Sequence to fold (516 residues):
Amino acid sequence: MRRSPFLFLLLCLLLLAGCAAPPAASTPTPALLPAGPRPTDTPAASASAPVPAPTAVAPPAEDVSRYTAALRPRAATGLRLEGLTRYRLDVTLAPGLAGLIGRAEIRYTNREAVALDVIYLHLYPNLWDGGMTVTDVQVAGRPVTVSYPSGDDVAGVPLDPPLASGATVELALRYAVPVPSGDGIGNYGEFALQAGVLALAHFYPTVAVYDTAWRIETPALQGDVIFHDASLYDVTLIAPANLVVAATGVSLSRAVNGDGTATWRLAGGPMRDFNIVASPDYHTAQAQVDDVMVTGYFRAEDEAGARQALQWAGEALRVYEQEFGPYPYRELDLAATGTAAAGIEYPGLIVLADRLYSDPARQTLFESVTAHEVAHQWWYNVVGNDQVNAPWLDEALAQYSTYLYYRSVYGAAGGAGFLAAMDERWARVDSIERPIGLPVSAYPEGEYSAIVYGRGPLFFVALEQEIGAARMAELLRRHYAETVWGIATPAQFRALAEAVAGQDLGALFKKWVDPS
Fold:
């Protein structure tokens, strides 16, 4: 069904969050390997069990099949996992889903050129006074005392002796956090129990990125707050047996316990993050896209909207694989939640605001958000970036990707309609020529949306017009292939764009991107 491009102008009034030329034949395809240096499985146990002494430095070879089970065969072939941080998480949900307790074992390898005397962990719920506590912290089996350099949202784990470059250390700890009901916490209520739907974004202590120094600054309370390395996850979840669970990675097993609970074994990697969404009220529907299973999780009354979202997500997967390169996972999940955003991305999982599913007036918004969040599987997950200080590298590029989706599915008129909506979004701030390359904190709330999400994709259109459609397609395929599982930077992207274009693009970047 083709729509009038004028309908896309609704986007400029409604869109709250999260975008073709054939690629050049010589463009490389990602091997889906870790992008060079920095950009012993344990039995499941109850959360009340003692924290075991972690494995010493230089652990033996391990069975990595639990991670690669989430990957499509092409992505798993030849994949090198050495050096990636490994999380082993045991999580138990409290009765009534009012909170959780957990145990974490984290294997961290120093991929820096310098020795490290501390490892910092983000406690993201505490950005919003979420009440996460960390106790019983051990380094290589020895108890240590953590520090809190900036309130209680970052915990410093001391290393004595310092961790040499190339060496590995095992951390172990316990943690607990209440789950708020109602509006939840997080910039968009993404950690919450709302109307029977449990959303557990950022539910575990997360290793900070080291980028010449530890990146532990407090993020702005808008936009995305995470900046993560691609990592590996092995998660055991004990929760009420009546829950239907959607999660990043894949479910390796589910066993019903004798007390009304069940135990799920979830795993996957490489991934930027791990999230669990669950509800006793969820129904599911599925669609196969080549060898990828796309699954929707929704309430019964929202089935029609969920099936429509499956169709849009499937179309987006096809478009982006053709434009950028292969999607890495066997599964993609779409879960309806009460988030205040229209949608939020996680690896192999996107959440979509349940209010969009049954509102005919919001169907244009619903489709664009679905396409935008699917694009984040390429830009944010496989190709990482600093979402706190350079959000345009994933958000504006996901918006441009949404433009490519509309151009592919609905033709030139559909693409033009989407760009008209982006023009209108930018016009909310009088189309000021504010750089798209600023940190999130540098934008007033209204400007962040208008500049990064509205003006941002228009920069990529201007770049395409400057270097030509064929070179633009080559640029994005190379950007994906050459930064797979790594972290992209603005300087890196510009250098690659100039190499592909064979020209200096300084004037274009100065006009659109660079802070003055």
The chain has ten helices and 22 strands. The chain has three domains: 5-16+24-30+387-512, 72-273, 283-369.
